[in-house]
Amino acid sequence: MAVQKYSKVEPEENVRVSVKINGRVYAETVEARMLLIDFIRDVAKLKGSKIGCDTTSCGACTVIVNGRSVKSCTMFAFEADGAEILTVEGLSADDKLHPLQEAFWNNHALQCGYCTAGMLMSAYYLLKKNPHPTEEEIRKGLAGNICRCTGYINIIKAVKEAASKGGSA
Amino acid sequence: MESLTLLFFVVEVNFRKLFKLRGLFNSKHMRPASFSVFRPLSLKEAVGVLSENDDAKVLAGGQSLIPMMKLRVFSPPKLVSLQRVKEIQPKISDEGGYISINSLTTYEDIAHNGDIRQKLPALAKAAGEVADQQIRNRGTIGGNVCHGDSAANLGVTLLALGATLVIEGVRGERKAGIDGFHTGPFSVALEHDEVVKRFEVPYDNSSKQTFMKISKTATTWPMASVAVNISVSGSTVAKARIALGVAGPTVLRAHRAEAYLEGKSLSADVVAKAAELAVDGLNPPSDIHADSEYRAHLLKVLTRRSLESLEV
């Protein structure tokens, strides 16, 4: 059997991270320990995504990485190298709110607003995968997002409205 | 003058206090200690790096490891990220008699896979009930099992399903049954320089199976979980495997209940007796979520409900 040669793998303390966020490329050499949420907020300077609990519980930091919703406080920036990311800033286009944002507005689906960016991204992912969810499916889809104002009823109403208007766009 | 100094003092002290308090909740204190990362492209490179670095820890989906590193419960100086390892990329395939699942396959992939939903419904259910959507999008089957948490949905279910692990190490490939793989709390029978490559999960048409858990909210860790896998012949049980989660230091099999069920049909009395036997002599852990006695009660109820739910 031929002996296969492998390049020696070197440890990296700093990692070059290049990601496309909302269509724009951001590249920076960062510490390996940098979390994706910190890259988004402090390197890309996109402050829409929030840090809530910082313990993988509340979902305020939810963003879409390569088409999947993730908690960006529980992912290293280097793991997103080469990825396409969508944050709340990327939802609206041409100064027009996304149907989900419109529905949140119409239904008073936010009180303090801190959870909103994460709620919107989780709802966005849900409607992408399941454009016509039942109420049960909406509740399950948003289970990873906590609203400490407990404004869940209006949030669910908003997602229903967005779905009825084709909000997965 | 004195009052001005005092004012200055008060302001400064409060400012410091404020700063310190802010510091306490500031992101810096919720960030992992520095580490260096290896990013191998092949399993050979991955196990090579592990064999040369005793202080390196494997990173898969990171949904347990990263929170632990952020809280600094655990601060490995080196990580080996499996993200780019080509042989273990997410993949599910029906190999006839068993389904092969590569170790980086996510809960989400498993929960929605047609073959798994049809042939291993307990596994699809267990994967679909892990934590929440975002965590299911990132967490992996390999990470779930190798983390060795007795509350892990997939660990419990794969034990009931009698999965085989295919493991790669510097000395080559080996296979290991899931029985005996969990050796203690957060401990599994894996050498430091070994990585789980894939899982082979057997199925057969006569198998009736399910997974059930009870947790305080949909997304929190289960207080108790049960997976049952019954092979039926006619109307009687030919073979039974029952696995219990959060029932002891590791995921456990309810051997006595399994043996009792064999050759019997699942009448209400038989199911009730099996549930009693499943928890007889069991000493589940106590923690803030549930005490030992309550947990044993939940395990008994879940065993009964699981068996009742099977359409035999």
Structural features, described:
The complex is a heterodimer of chains A (169) and B (312). Mean pLDDT of chain A is 94; it is low at 1-5. Chain A has a five-stranded mixed beta sheet, with helices on both faces. In chain A, α2 packs across α5 (152-164). Helix content of chain A is 30%, strand content 16%. Chain A folds into two domains: 15-90, Ubiquitin-like (UB roll) (Roll); 99-164, [2Fe-2S]-binding domain (DNA polymerase, domain 1, Orthogonal Bundle). Chain A has helices at 36-43, 99-106, 116-129, 135-141, 152-164; strands at 14-21, 24-31, 62-65, 68-71, 84-86. By secondary structure, chain B is α+β, with helices and mostly antiparallel strands. Helix content of chain B is 38%, strand content 24%. Chain B has helices spanning 2-25, 43-52, 65-70, 107-112, 114-119, 121-128, 133-138, 141-147, 153-161, 255-261, 268-279, 292-309, and strands at residues 36-38, 56-59, 78-81, 92-94, 98-102, 164-169, 172-177, 182-184, 187-188, 194-202, 207-214, 224-233, 236-245, 252-253. In chain B, strands 4-5-10-6-7 form a five-stranded antiparallel beta sheet. In chain B, α10 runs antiparallel to α11. Chain B is globular, with a radius of gyration of 23 Å. Chains A and B meet through β4 and α3 of A and β1, α2, α3, β3 and α7 of B.
Descriptive terms for the model:
heterodimer, A: 169 residues, alpha+beta, DNA polymerase, domain 1, 5-stranded mixed beta sheet, 5 helices, disordered N terminus, B: 312 residues, Uridine Diphospho-n-acetylenolpyruvylglucosamine Reductase, domain 3, Enolase-like, domain 1, 4-stranded antiparallel beta sheet, 12 helices, 24% strand, globular
